[in-house]
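This section describes the prediction task in plain terms. A model, or a person checking by hand, is given the sequence of a single protein chain and must write out its three-dimensional structure as a string of tokens. No templates, partner chains or ligands are provided. The sample shown here is typical of the held-out split.
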Amino acid sequence: MVLVQHADTLRRAIIMSKKIITGILIQLLSGWLFAQTDQLPNVDYLQPADFEIGGVKVTGAVHTDTTTILSMAGFRQGDRIRIPGATVSRALKTLMKQGLFTDVQILKNKTIGDVVYLEIKVQERPRLGSHSFKGVKKSKHDGLNNAVNNYLIKGTIVTDQVKKNAIYAIKKYFIEKGFADVEVMSHEEPNHLLDNSMRLVFEIKQGEKIKVEEINFTGNNNVKNKKLKKLLPTKQKNKLFAASKLIPTEWEKGKKNIIAHYNSLGYLDAEIMSDSIGRKKNNGNYFTQINIEEGQLYYFGNISWEGNTKYSNEQLNKILNIKKGEIFNAQKLEERLHFSQTNDDLTGLYMDDGHLFFNLQKETKAIRGDTVDLNIRIFEGPAAMVDKVTIKGNDRTNEHVIRRELRTEPGKKFSRADIIRSQRALANLGFFNPEKMDINTPVNAERGTVDIEYTVDEKNSDQFELAVAYGGPEVGVTGTVGVTFNNFSLKNIRDRSTWAPLPTGDGQQLSLRAQSNGKAYQSYNLAFTEPWLGGKKPTSLSFATFFTRNTNGYDSSSDAFSSISTLGGSVSVGTRLQWPDDNFTSTTTLNFRKYTLDNYSDGLFKSDDGQPVTDGHFFNINIQQRIARSTIDNPLFPTQGSKVSLMAQFTPPYSLFDGNAETTLDANDRFKFLEYHKWRLDGEWYTALNKKLVLKFGAKFGYVGAYNKSIGTSPFERFLLGGDMFSNNSNSVLGTDNITLRGYEIEELENNVVDGETVATPLYNKFTAELRYLISPNPNATIYALAFAEAGNAYQDFKSYNPFDLKRSAGVGLRVFLPMFGTLGFDYGWGFDKAGANTFKGIGKISLVMGFEPE
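The expected answer:
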């Protein structure tokens, strides 16, 4: 009984102790949660009470909207709330979970009866004012900023996750550059420029660059190690100009390339059984191992078709172009079925005829030993029609200028080839960035229609030329100013709102150029082109006029004075042809030129019998016809396609009209009215070796002939082969066509020199091979490097013509295209067939390029 009483007393004591401790804790907690500005009666926290919220105010919020804070807390005036209670605790937790505050307090300002007035006091997290990098060179800061800019936004809260994302981006940046052991830490510093802001500093230890020292293969019995290494984006450190670094994503891509290559060779079962990456102890470089199981070699067997109603099996087999017994090339099969570089694949056959919903499935019908039989099931689908064609992004170019280049029209049958041609035509306008051009084709399957959306990105296509050069005491200072507006609008000339700096948007071209160095040289040019005369057909109309005058610098009253001037103009009409295909264009030009020579003893113009033309007026009236075909994909850096043109130029055969023509006259009198026929054939072909490497081949041929052998070939309109655009510039308007030959001056070709004087020739040929590497595709600064091999020669007549007697050269160069200045660059060529040159330096010659690519 005593034990029971003691136990009961002990139990009551424990209960009383718990109540006291609970009361104390509640009072302490209430001191943190609630602060009173007035003397209020004590609240019995062991007995919570209900209150009506009379009002709530928010303090401490600078960047965060107070309405948002009240909404998150869930307090509304007039609501009933229990104090203490779960509502207050829940509001605290909700606000803290947002990550916006470092501290939150809910305070009781006052009570009036059962009405309570609350205050939500917050301490906001500091906002990002700026960020910086330590431990790395400033040259890397731009790249690092690009890496972290998506995560670090000025004025936003920096959470732990934001820091982790930024650190990850920085590490990725360095790992992709080969610094696999990079370490990054971050810390915060006060930013005194903005209230409640901080500066985030990243401490970076990039470490040493880790290179790939070894790449080893096993099991590759039919493909050499050298070939497999080329398929890997990851290169060994001993490879010249190769980026020796290991990036995990690139490594995985390389393994897929290896399997794809084996499949293209007929090894359909090829597998990478295992691969490993390790680090060497002595220097930390990587060594890798790839173990390959090649499997057996397979061949194409029978190929059967199902579902084809529009085209016969024979037609489809012809398009597929795969013969029974060929080594099974999986890559070729995919290209012939879906997409080939020449767009003559099976999918293109159907999609060019409107079958947008076309689909096919290939399946292995049987494997007979090493032979694979295929079955190709075709789902032709209905022909789709083009519904809407929309254009976006053209803030300068008028819409009709773009629409007239499009092959896709509403109501027309859908064609993949039309979209490809339209994209190429827009790129060749030169008004848009081809890298950012986008084409979207939303489909309405129920109606059997497709909309086509073209999104373009405008770029500045105008060019400006301003140059000052000093040509020595005899020439003096030469100044040049020129502008070319490639997207001009003549009809908006009175609308000042379209001027930028002149009216733009109609795709017309206007160019003006003036060059002078006082008495010695003056040149003025004006040209205008309307590419779509009338706006409905691709018929162009062009006008051009120019005047140039060269003197030897003496006063005109001096006996030693010598000059040549040229006044000329032309009108041309061009149109797009439909036969043999619509890649052809025809341009007809009527030219007039008047050459005036006064004691011109340079020796450039000579008749076939060697008589110099030095004095008089000479008239050149001719019609020029040019047929050209172009399929290049980009005018700045073509990667595929070709450009071929044939030009024929004729003057009236005056001497044939006059039976009593005096053919024994002095050369100055014999060529008053020039008569000749002139031919030029130019061609360029481009092949992409990869995305940045392009191979170009070029060939040029020119010939000037005579109607009357007694009179001979015209001393004007001949060719000057050799030199560069600067050494030939003074001759560009003097009645000669200037063709550069890198590595040679004009006088270094012996056929250009007669009796010690440089003369123009009636015949030439030239061949070029170039390997181009794209450094920057940016249309605002397109840059590429090149290596070239060139061969050509000039000839005085067809009797001495020998197509194998060529002057050879090779060299390197660089091109930079700036919209405002055109093409700038240089070539350094070595002419291997120079007379007397026997040193590597002696045969070298630098050629400058400014404004445009010379012929």
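For orientation: The radius of gyration is 40 Å.
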